[in-house]
């Protein structure tokens, strides 16, 4: 067969037709995803560095009675106050997790001004999360990701539909970056953001590619491996599945209560006026600083607390008490309107609750539950499924974060029962409620 020179191939009508069919959206999505991964990975690194530096400095001051407490209160109060000031003065739409704002943009209700959202969410996220507030990093990375999608669309003069795809794709890339979980990021877009596109197949390809490139970007900054380096457990016996079903039912009730109280907290803080409103960040930040000095596991996003709870053999009553404290702290912090997410705090709450009951459950049913810590892995996904009402995202997120893929059946059971229990009680997905609340305002 005669070989055609490269020039003739490039100039052939068939090649030009093929090139014409290529979708530039995929190229844009890959670029936007990579930027999201690098920026989100840097954000994760800086938050951890600020938290560690603050804790080490405060610990070094405890040689003098009360000095560590005073410094901790002052530092956290100033950081949270500055975070609130920047958010309220420059970009009020960066309040909370940012997920309802992304959903509102995709449905045509809200604008997305990336020029102010991106820098303000990054800086306030560092201040709020670095202060020890009980909030997750996934909210900031998701909203920053959506803003990056809008930014890249502006660079390439993308049309309205292409911009919507980029925003959705990079929103999922933000979740993938926060937890090193690309599959969960992809599922999050379709299960939580629920956008509709003119060309679903091309949009799916762009979302997938964005999550892949974002994961590569964040791994360049933070390295590979699961976010939570926990024990790789063996598959529990089939006879134990009823325990995971009961666990899911319990988290269905907890998730329903969490959503209800969270909305009440938001309504309370939004009703504040005058100095109470002006100094909200100062008061809450000071309280966070005090709690951080008094007992550090009560504060922080949750990842460090999960590792701590696995590495320290604490009595069950201590773990359950810590669960209730962090439950209340999460409602307080998120309800205040501070920039941050609730995924990571929920994962830590589930860990504490499950570890608190796991030993007793193992004592009662040693053959059905040979490894009591397995309850913790299943419980993480169950609480997310009950509150966010995105069970597939919760399942994939749990598997990718812990690398316990062999526990997929127990996780499926717990997530399904948690979601259906919360639904049967009349609960609604938290981000849907928050979006409707924002639209009414």
TrEMBL record:
Its main location: membrane. It comes from the Bacteria. Pfam families: Voltage_CLC. It comes from Floridaenema aerugineum BLCC-F46. It is found in: Membrane. It is a multi-pass membrane protein. InterPro entries: Cl-channel_core, ClC. The keyword Coiled coil does not apply. Keywords: Chloride, Ion transport, Membrane, Transmembrane, Transmembrane helix, Transport. SUPFAM superfamilies: Clc chloride channel (SSF81340). The chain crosses the membrane at residues 25-47, 68-87, 165-190, 241-263, 275-295, 315-335, 342-362, 374-399. This is H(+)/Cl(-) exchange transporter ClcA.
